[in-house]
Amino acid sequence: MGLRIVVAADSAGIEYKEVLKKDLEADPRVDEVIDAGLAPGEEVDYPHVAVKAARLIANGRADRGLFVCGTGMGVAMAANKVPGIRASVAHDSFSVERLIKSNNAQVLTFGERVIGLELARRLAKEWLGHTFDETSASAPKVAALEAYDADPAYEPAI
Q1: How many whole angstroms separate alpha carbon 84 and alpha carbon 92?
Q2: Segment 24-71, tens digit of pLDDT
Q3: Phi then psi for 93, rounded to 5 degrees?
Q4: What is the DSSP string of 64-125?
Q5: What does the alpha-carbon distance between residue 107 and residue 66 come to, in Å, rounded to a whole number?
Q6: Where are the annotated coiled coils located (predicted)?
Q7: What is the pTM of this model?
């Protein structure tokens, strides 16, 4: 079964979102692309768009998300407000790989004003190929993140 990907952007990221959406729709590893907005001409602030899209992942409607704003930072911070979501901006191959392999993050974010379109397209394609290994040395770290999400008062024995 292929991935279900939600895409989202604010007004500063619509152009890239539209191109990346087409790339994802054409990728055989993707079964479904859900567009959570915005459409060209719409004006909604990035927190609202990113949280709406991240909730689709948290609720099991999508597996991963690809969000775009001017820098990638705003949509990442907003998505991280949704319990259970791990999101980060990444602008190079190593960071995209570690986003999944070290952090089991569901959301990759890009900054349209920061990264070239062709690099964003290549990195999104690479991102689809990475999977998290539940037996890796990173698994306990991801479990700790999940514990903090489940109970903000969680106190580890350190």
Answers
A1: 24
A2: 999 999 999 999 999 989 999 999 999 999 999 999 999 999 999 999
A3: -60, -45
A4: EEEEEESSSHHHHHHHTTSTT--EEE--SHHHHHHHHHTT--SEEEEETTTS-HHHHHHHHH
A5: 6
A6: none
A7: 0.96
